[in-house]
Specification:
The chain contains 19 helices and four strands. The chain has one domain. The N terminus is likely disordered. The N and C termini lie far apart (96 Å). By secondary structure, the protein is mainly alpha-helical. It is a multi-pass membrane protein.
Amino acid sequence: MSSKPEQKETHQANGAVLPIVSVDCLTSPDRGQLVEPSDFLGPDGDGVEVVVLESRANAKGVREEDALLENGSQSNESDDTSTDRGPEPASPLKETSFSIGLQVLFPFLLAGFGTVAAGMVLDIVQHWDVFKYVTEVFILVPALLGLKGNLEMTLASRLSTAANIGQMDTPKELWRMITGNMALIQVQATVVGFLASIAAVIFGWIPDGHFSIDHAVLLCASSVATAFIASLVLGMIMIGVIIGSRKMGINPDNVATPIAASLGDLITLALLSGISWGLYKELESKAYVNPLVCAFFIALLPIWIIIAKKNAATREVLYSGWEPVIIAMAISSVGGLILDRTVSDPNFAGMAVFTPVINGVGGNLVAVQASRISTYLHMSGMPGESSETAPRKCPSPCSTFFSSDVNSRSARVLFLLVVPGHLVFLYTISSMQGGHTTLTLIFIVFYMTAALLQVLILLYIADWMVHWMWGRDLDPDNFSIPYLTALGDLIGTGLLALSFHVLWLIGDRDSDVGD
């Protein structure tokens, strides 16, 4: 009977309270025969209790081994060691390049046509009185259109990850995720809309020093109301898309963010135009309407804050998720300034209709990639944990685009969608006579070069940023997509403006870039 005290001494030396397990528990049909019962029989044939010790490192190793086994089919170097394990549930990451492309293609085209429609709408509404006499509304456009990256795409990525890791399988979990996330995005939309209106007032005041309190209140009411309603509508659509995708066996990461983008630009721009036009008409006769509208939506903030705070899934984002949203809005506003300066120049008048397209396509593709990488990391643990799935902080371009893992495969697929997608969108714009620009060969070459370079940069930044945030104990679903889509707006607008400038300098008059 000396073995029992020895086990207790070992147990106390490790400094942790561990359970004492009877020998009957050491045999498991899942893990095989671990010990022979005869080895632990006392002199009288009675079972002797022993302590089964498992260190934290071993527990973590088992968990990482399980994650690798679950996704073993994605790597050519992995060995099949799960022959005696039960069947694992299907992983959303076990996808071929063809299946990824097939699932992404339709939402990608839908998103692209949504950006084309948004560009055509902007081309029409720019002649309305509210856009003529309250020109600061143009400054609101990129910031509010960027809400799809700040809020809706982040919501889609967050819910896609939750669905893929089994946090929305029961009705109770589903309802908890829906109510918490909807309340959260209403808080974020109201605050971002208010800050965007302040930025528009400041940027409109800086050039000529003119300030109108009526126009400032109009901008505040229009921005807050547009952000609130657009986020409510798009959030409900996103929930339906993600639930439907899971029921149809489609990876929500591949479809949710592009659909959010496709509807986001069009719905947001239509709401901004209609609300600002209606409030502008009431400005002279009923000046009190604008401050009432602004006060109404701001007064609803405490309700949404209380709901979001009660939900554990959104409480952390409510406190820590403001930095990327606000910084992304500032980055988008810089892109808006570039757009405002270039479109006002007659030499770049044809650029306006193409800007939402190139920015939207780049943002859509990088959002899909960021959502997929985030889901892949979440399946191996929690942010901040040392994981073999996040081994690098600054990846090389070769590892991002040419390695054998599933994220590199999806990066190649998404990059290859750029040229055929943009050709379809350019033909659509040309057939609708948008922008009054003739599609010459040299124009298409410069446009495609800008689009390819934009997506190439964004996909590489996404690979670095998501892993870097993961190592910093930040959830990429909440932090990465706002930065990436805002960078997409800035890079896309800058490269497109540069392309038009070069075309004008070399004298490509056939493309009518100045029409």
